[in-house]
């Protein structure tokens, strides 16, 4: 039983075959998805059904480890996760032979890539595709700003191979997919600019990061804040960096975590947080933000957004306000107020005239009552409490 059969999804035209009416409807769905990325899974599912296939996706050349972040039909996703996790992209005959062929042909089929005899010995074909129940393969080639992309389609063993007649029906889709990707990039650029300005209107500094962890764009609040933060937080080599080596390494790890959270399909992955100590005054809090339009795709350069909270810009909260709003005891609220100076817990304990053990117990109680797990999370929560 194939993955498509297990999911209860069968091609509208039966075994193999192309459904022209469904192609038109599927293309309309893909154009809609170019504006609303959440529609891509359903749109790619319809593309697969229109061509009598079990699964389809959109794939730019050389993405490899990031393949699982691309728009794909629901049936393709579990397969892609194994494909990436197990490193099947290495020495893949379809990529090595297919991409050069796509310079000459708009559609490449499985039989363009290997003979029947050769296919019986190919590990990728037998140990991966046939194990998942996928025997047939076709790829529609197209270009985005000169870079090669394709739409791979997989047919189950029951559906069989794609034919030259199928390929002729697919050829006309190449220009459509080129336009879709250009439209998608334009729409995402507009949304990211809008998001940056939304944060600026709230007096929040926001930074867009690309896949290489480099800063792509700052909003006007970030442009005003960062010069005041130097050298504790700067843009160096195009990245968010710090003067202090330990914090600098943490910043690089934080950027990695932001990218990982942005590309994850799991809703359980939480956006990362970190604090950046300052030589004078209270620290900066950095928060990775998940935005709906930053769906797991590679259709735009911007893949993560970081909001920088300047705790120094906020008046210190009063103990009674912390206590009342968070349901803390007065002692716990005093601990929170002292922690906002970013002093180490031992110094905070000395300041409050308590032992380090008592301070740890109070902090543990605060974590429990506020549903936080780290001091950085707690400080971010405290920074968001509105003033009187």
UniProtKB/TrEMBL annotation:
It comes from the Bacteria. Coiled coil: none annotated. Residues 325-382 form the HTH luxR-type domain. Transmembrane segments: none annotated. Keywords: Plasmid. InterPro entries: Sig_transdc_resp-reg_C-effctor, Tscrpt_reg_LuxR_C, WH-like_DNA-bd_sf. SMART domains: HTH_LUXR (SM00421). This is HTH luxR-type domain-containing protein. It comes from Nitratireductor thuwali. The lineage of its organism: Bacteria, Pseudomonadati, Pseudomonadota, Alphaproteobacteria, Hyphomicrobiales.
